[in-house]
Write a structure and sequence with these properties.
This protein is α/β, with parallel strands linked by helices. It has five helices and seven strands. α4 (92-104) links the parallel β2 (84-89) and β3 (111-115). The structure holds S-adenosylmethionine (SAM).
């Protein structure tokens, strides 16, 4: 009996002396199967303001930025207009920055950021979709967006258009940094555009 108790005590002492194993939380990874629709180039703030004005964002509307980077478009829409927002990006660092920016701007209750492929994001509830992606990427998204969006939903594309789809408006201007910018406004009308 004594021998058993000694053995138990030794085993306990050994277990207690083991170093604590730190919890291994793997950082979220970029999905390897997601297409690279554009490199990260943030839209300057004055151009963000102009994109949202062109979209005529209203309080309570849902603004979705496909490839949201640091979340500035969605955060500004929430801060300035009281809009709700969803931003998706395939880069975990961008999503971390976007969440930090939403917190700093005190709009966390209005916006959500997800590590997600823009090509598989459901935009059916969006009132406004913003894009700063390459032309070929806009064209890949065009059938998806025009199939899902309700009539009247707006798309604002920065620099790159949506191919042969005629925009409602084109806004060309020089930004505060002295660069020429072009924004394209499209309106969903229930017609699917391949
Ligand atoms: C030109 S930046 C635009 C960032 C932001 N929308 C802005 O205007 O400041 C394009 C962003 O798209 C993201 N991206 C590229 N491919 C993507 C994909 N398949 N799904 C979601 N995001 C993607 C990149 O990581 C990058 O942050």
């Amino acid at each position: 009996m004594l021998a058993v108790m000694i053995r138990l005590a030794l085993a306990l002492t050994f277990l207690v002396s083991l170093p604590a194993i730190p919890a291994q939380v793997a950082p979220p990874q970029r999905r390897p199967d997601a297409p690279q629709l554009a490199p990260y180039v943030p839209t300057p703030q004055d151009v963000v303001d102009r994109m949202l004005a062109l979209a005529d964002v209203k309080k309570g509307e849902l603004v979705v930025d496909l490839g949201c980077g640091d979340g500035r478009i969605v955060v500004t829409a929430a801060q300035k207009y009281g809009a709700r927002g969803l931003g998706v990006d395939i880069d975990p660092q961008r999503i971390a920055e976007a969440n930090a920016n939403a917190k700093a701007a005190k709009v966390e209750h209005l916006v959500t950021f997800r590590l997600q492929d823009a090509m598989t994001t459901d935009v059916s509830s969006a009132n406004v979709v913003t894009l700063y992606l390459l032309s070929a990427s806009n064209l890949r998204l065009r059938p998806i967006l025009t199939r899902q969006l309700k009539s009247g939903a707006r798309i604002v594309a920065h620099t790159f258009s949506m191919g042969d789809w005629q925009p409602e408006k084109v806004d060309s201007f020089t930004d505060v940094g002295g660069r020429q910018r072009t924004l394209y406004l499209y309106k969903a009308d229930g017609k699917v555009r391949q």
